[in-house]
């Protein structure tokens, strides 16, 4: 058998086969123009959707003081129940009688709870700056030490558009995303909000009322670096998102060439028959399809390190998007 000819033929066929997988049904230019058109006819509303902070206290059962203060300030207890997961046994849920503000207070450590966990965890949904200042003042008066855990900013687009959601999911990425890094504190991350506790997470979802919501979850490290604390939450209005996130295209050709180069030795092996080659091609095509069709795969750096190198900025989309967000206030 002429192995040299077999190697050359196998690699050439593999190269053509993989490149043939990438024929987008809609070009980048068409998609960008459609996004700009939809964006110009879409209303945008910005607000803080949720904040979370912890309280440490030297007094016994600090939650009782907080519950009394909430009731005296127009909040009523809607639920007090056991918590299945996490470090706390119970959760008290309070809603304001006039405003659409909900406050969840997690209290009473489980036996398995680590000793460094603070006494209370408080989550506030749909807050306004007055309610946050009041909470901070009350906690200080009780001698609580507060630590802001995360803040979720929401950008609501109306009316809802499937195309807009798809465009955001595919093209809005972290500007300085570095992929895998040993110095994790130096990198921004994107991914599953329940599994990812790093600096910044972005994701979009449909909300009741024909609204598409883009959520940005800023976690403790980022908030601290931006000087945002519970007593000065309004500083989130000064965060320049254009320095953090950007619309980018995936450079498919660059990615394809990388994948082929990465698997070159595998595809160049001399095979006694074509069965092993076909298996390898299928494996490679599956990886390639996942990366191309689900851009989130790239963002999670599961298969490819330093994936930021495969993305290129979309200047028109960035300019139009941040022009709409000029002077936006979240709280």
Overview of this protein structure:
This protein has 331 residues and is α+β, with helices and mostly antiparallel strands. The chain folds into 2 domains: 1-45 and 155-200 and 207-214 and 221-326, no CATH class; 58-143, TATA-Binding Protein. It has helices at 3-19, 28-40, 62-72, 129-141, 162-171, 220-225, 252-262, 264-267, 275-293, 296-299, 315-324; strands at residues 43-56, 75-82, 88-96, 102-109, 120-125, 145-158, 172-174, 200-207, 211-219, 245-250, 311-313. The strands form 2 sheets. An 8-stranded antiparallel sheet has the order 2-3-4-5-1-6-9-8. It has a 3-stranded antiparallel sheet with strand order 7-10-11. A hairpin with a 5-residue loop joins strand 2 (75-82) and strand 3 (88-96). The longest helix has 19 residues, at 275-293.
Task: Report Rg.
Answer: 25 Å
Bin the strand percentage.
25-35%
Strand tally: 11
- Using the alpha-carbon principal axes, give the shape: globular
Q: Give the N-to-C terminal Cα separation.
A: 73 Å
User: Which structural class best describes the helix and strand composition?
Assistant: alpha+beta
Strand order of the largest sheet: 2-3-4-5-1-6-9-8
Order of helices and strands: HHEHEEEEHEHEEEHEHHHHEH
Largest sheet: 8 strands, antiparallel
In which range does the helix fraction lie? Answer: 25-40%
Domain count: the total is 2
Overall mean pLDDT stands at 79
Stretches where pLDDT is under 50 for at least 5 consecutive residues are 1-10, 17-23, 177-198, 290-298, 300-304
Per DSSP, the total helix count is: 11
